[in-house]
Amino acid sequence: MARRFTVHERRAVRDLAGVWEFAFLGDVDPDSIDLGDIDFDAIMAVPGCFDATPDHAGRRGLAAYRLRVPVTRPGRQRLAFDGVHHWCRVHWDGAPIREHAGGFTAFHADVPHAEAGTAVLVVLVDNRIGPRSPLHMEHFDWYHFGGIARGAELHSLPSTWIEGLRVTTDDVHEGRFTVRVDYRSDEPATAPLEIEYDGRVLTAETLRLDTSGRIERTFTVPGARPWSPADPALHTVAVRLGEDDMRERFGLREIGTANGRVTVNGEPLTLLGFNRHESHPQFGHTQPLPLLLNDLQQIRDLGCNFVRGSHYPQDPMFLDLCDEYGVCVWSETIGWQYPVALLQDPDFLAAQRDHLDEMVAAAANHPSIVLWGILNECPSYDPAARPAYESLLGRLKELDPSRPVTYATLNVYDDVCLDLADVVSVNTYPGWYFGGLDEVPRELDRIADHLERTGHGAKPLIISEIGAGAVPGWTDPHNGMWTEQYQSDLLEATARHLLAAPDRYAGLAIWLLADFRTTAHKDMLLKRPRSINDKGILDEYRRPKQAYRTIRALFRDRS
Ligand code: ADA
Questions:
Q1: What are the Glycoside hydrolase family 2 catalytic domain coordinates in residue numbering (predicted)?
Q2: Long-range CB pairs of 428-437, under 8 A, 24+ apart, other chains included
Q3: Which of these, 230, 248, 465, 520, is most buried using a 10 Å CB contact count?
Q4: Closest CA to 145 of 85, 64, 63, 81
């Protein structure tokens, strides 16, 4: 996993990023494919999205990637993928070893034993919308790119290895935290354990290990600097267990809610920022480092302290950078207006749950993540959907009781699940999908009044989407819809209204940071000039529109 620090120093890790052999196979059934018959007649970047490249732009179907990998340490091998869209089957020397569905989360594929030499890795990747990838749907408002979109690595594991490492803050003021190490071992074994914090050994002991288990140790480091957006202090924990090791960066901090506000270390913080899609005309869902840095620099330049990762888990490197820059993140599972029938379908829910588990496993140590979210704009107004909300929000609480949970509702007035969320998050488009500019303050008041009247007033309220389309460069003397001026006026009205009442509005995520390609579905295209959702204050190449300057002035002046 591409991170801002070295995760393993003892464990042998090979980065598989580079140019792989490639074949686009088209509309065929993966089960009918004989790997030996594939003609790898092209090459493809990993990480990368094949349907964002000129040769395969917009094509859907099965593709095959191949790489010859040197195995230098015999024994257990682990292939670690950070995200493959939308479905894949991984083969090691011709044998299938793992299937995975859902593109925005990490997974791995293990080979229990490999001899030293060269292994042939083939990954069948399917970017079609269909039953193999139950989380993806055609009518989402974004284009689903396909491919090995995020990083890939080969790990050679020793006979006892660390499976996961979690650090949680117990008391930010006392500097108390717990380190939880999940391990596996081919056989029961005795192994030395060492836990280091910022280069200082906190414990060194010898342990008797079973074939799998969890080691938990709590430490107090008096005077340890807490993490906050104003002072994003980070610490490193390094765990060495036998011949294996793992390190993680974390921040000591507590997130809570009180009196209608989100709190960081007990202090209320108004969350101000944008929704962010991971999409680029040339790279698809792949996020090259300069692009991530660009986004972070513009987010900071705007005076934001908040990003909603719409509508799926964001790139691990983006989260690392948010940790460092002190940007708070709402991390949500993939979702977009799923119909109620899907939310009642046990297979779909099982897939959502697996995906949610993967999101939390990969991202729980990031101090920047202040909120977990699920199911953007799904039918939370329909009692038939409530069990799905109960189950997924409940699962989040079970996996991580330390963070508030939320979901963006499309219809707050009829919502029947608000009691299940710690933070009420409302998507609304006054002045765009309904009413004119004067509707903006009216609707924002109406929402806050409604929540107060219906007994949800004590919960923080985040306006999780609001915005207007603007065709880059478009002006007209009427300042009509799609002009940069209209977008700027609408966002100005929104920001002024919210900034004046921090006790009523705990946060704002403007829709949208940067423009992105939408789905190829006709219903959506007819509402999206250039096939682009253009409610960004940046265009898809990150060039600022007029609203950028407007919001920058308002956000930066707020203190
Ligand atoms: C919804 C949705 C977004 C986007 C937006 C829009 O609120 O959550 O993903 O589709 O509308 O641009 O209309």
A1: 259-553
A2: 428/463, 428/465, 428/466, 429/465, 429/466, 429/467, 429/468, 430/466, 431/468, 431/490, 431/493, 432/467, 432/468, 432/469, 432/481, 432/490, 437/486, 437/489, 437/490, 437/493
A3: 465
A4: 85
The CATH number of the structural domain formed by 268-556 is 3.20.20.80
Q: Give the phi and the psi of residue 24 in degrees, each rounded to 5.
A: -95, 120
The pLDDT, as a whole number, for residue 558 is 79
Alpha-carbon gap, residue 63 to 55, rounded angstroms: 13
Locate 517 and state its tokens. 């390609």
Alpha helices by DSSP H, 59-131: none
- Label residue 283 exposed, middle or buried (CB < 10 Å: 0-12, 13-18, 19+): buried
Mutate to test the pocket of ligand 1, among 278, 465, 525, 528 (most ligand atoms within 8 A of CB): 465
Substitution site in 141, 336, 410, 471 for ligand 1 pocket (most atoms within 8 Å of beta carbon): 141
pLDDT score recorded for residue 205: 98
Query: Which superfamily does CATH assign the domain made up of 12-157 to?
Result: Galactose-binding domain-like (2.60.120.260)
Q: Chain-centre distance of CA 152, in angstroms?
A: 17
Q: Say yes or no: domain 160-255 is CATH 2.60.40.10.
A: yes
- DSSP of 361-423: HHHTT-TTEEEEEE-TT--TTSGGGHHHHHHHHHHHHHH-TTS-EEEEES-GGG-S-GGG-SS
Cβ(332) to ligand 1 under 6 A? Answer: no
The pair of three-digit structure tokens given for residue 156, joined into one six-digit string: 């050679």
The pLDDT > 70 percentage for the chain reads 100
Domain residue ranges of the chain, discontinuous segments joined by +: 12-157, 160-255, 268-556
**The CA-based dihedral angle spanning residues 428, 333, 513, 491, taken in that order and rounded to the nearest 10 degrees:** 20
535 lines ligand 1 (CB under 6 A): yes
Task: Give the DSSP letter of residue 536.
Answer: -
Indicate whether residue 331 lines ligand 1 (CB < 6 A).
Answer: no
409 lines ligand 1 (CB under 6 A): no
| pLDDT (0 to 100) of residue 2 | 83
Nearest atom, ligand 1, residue 465 CA: 7
Residue nearest to atom 7 of ligand 1 (CA): 427
Residues 287, 52: Cα–Cα separation, whole Å = 12
Residue 98 near residue 354 (C-beta atoms within 8 A): no
- pLDDT at residue 559, as a whole number: 53
